[in-house]
Design brief:
This protein is α/β, with parallel strands linked by helices. It contains 10 helices and 8 strands. The strands form 2 sheets. Strands 2-1-3-4-7-8 form a 6-stranded parallel β-sheet, sandwiched between helices. Strands 5-6 form a two-stranded antiparallel sheet. The two termini are 16 Å apart.
Length: 255
């Protein structure tokens, strides 16, 4: 049994992980799916002012107040920014840091530096036009199934505009994240190269590496395969110690 914390990507919410979370529970795992401030059911909370640091605080608080240890911390897409910051702050609690087709920033990088030129600037322009500091998800990032698929349509209907401050703030890393074993899951079923630099890094640094032939929103397009690969990564990672065989300082008992 493993403890998973699944962090959603931009514009989403913890709700999008429910089918995967339920299937992982059925396999005997413990699962937490926090919604980041300003999004999902928390869209009414400081939605225009939320920063990347706030999102890192959100997930760190889940680990702290649920008294979690030996965590498999997973971030999807933008969620990779968040989980990187969390793992750097509390590496002793993390068993494995998993980037699910997700960004993997280095110290001092924001989404502006690691996305294609003009991407964040376009979001800023939209937010300025709206006048509320938030931008909706660009059409080109929507699931390809679109409104023809009921599940995809319900998914899209729940996406919320996101504060552009989450895209412009740089993550600050002390280097503690380098103590944490990492994995990268690359989705190969869509056109695009934005994740290529992080795939290269994952392979060169010896992270666990897996591929799924599915679209970027893997938990929407192939939830069964997503569950299977998360279960496999849990089995592939030693429990109670990191990849270098350090003592099980992160094995916190549950209440």
């Amino acid at each position: 049994m493993a403890t998973f914390v699944l962090v959603h990507g931009g514009w989403g919410g913890g709700w999008e992980w429910t089918p995967v979370a339920n299937a992982l529970w059925e396999r005997g795992h413990e699962v937490f799916t926090p919604t980041l401030t300003g999004l999902g059911e928390r869209a009414h909370i400081r939605a225009s002012e939320v920063t990347l640091s706030d999102h890192i605080d959100d997930v760190q608080a889940v680990v702290r107040f649920e008294e979690l240890g030996d965590v498999i911390l997973c971030g999807h897409s933008y969620g990779g920014m968040v989980v990187t910051g969390v793992a750097d702050r509390m590496p002793e609690h993390i068993r494995l840091l998993v980037h699910l087709d997700a960004f993997a920033p280095r110290d001092g990088e924001s989404m502006r530096e690691i996305t294609p030129p003009g991407f964040v600037e376009a979001l800023l322009d939209v937010a300025q036009e709206r006048g509320d500091g938030r931008a909706p998800i660009p059409d080109e990032l929507l699931p390809s199934a679109g409104e023809e698929d009921e599940t995809a349509a319900r998914y899209v209907a729940r996406l919320q505009p996101q504060s552009t401050k989450t895209f412009t703030e740089a993550v600050r890393l002390s280097g503690n994240v380098d103590r944490v074993p990492r994995a990268f899951v690359r989705c190969t079923g869509y056109a695009g190269s934005v994740m290529d630099p992080f795939v290269t890094r994952a392979r060169s640094e010896g992270w666990l590496y897996r591929e799924l032939e599915t679209e970027h929103d893997l938990h929407l397009s192939d939830p069964a395969a997503t569950v299977a690969i998360l279960h496999e990564l849990a089995d592939a990672t030693p429990r109670g110690a990191d990849a270098r065989g350090d003592p099980a300082v992160n094995a916190m008992p549950r209440p």
